[in-house]
Amino acid sequence: MKGFGFIQRDDGQPDAFVHISAVERAGMATLNEGDKLEFELEVDRRGKYAAVNLSAAS
């Protein structure tokens, strides 16, 4: 709804920001709470982590 959200990481590190554009580039319409994903992390200029190159976890 907001166009962005956060993904809880399995490694216990801080959540990763995800923007709707990354979701759409992955060919997904939406994400739902509890969805399992594979993704890469990108660090922005503020030092925050963003999830990119998303795919459904197998």
TrEMBL record:
GO molecular function list: DNA binding
GO CC terms: cytosol
Domain of life: Bacteria
Keywords: Activator, Cytoplasm, DNA-binding, Transcription, Transcription regulation
Tagged with keyword Cell inner membrane: no
Signal peptide: none
Domain CSD: 1-56
Entry-linked InterPro entries: Cold_shock_CspA, CSD, CSP_DNA-bd, NA-bd_OB-fold
Places the protein is found: Cytoplasm
Primary location group: cytoplasm
Name this protein carries in UniProt: Cold-shock protein
The organism of origin for this protein: Sphingomonas liriopis
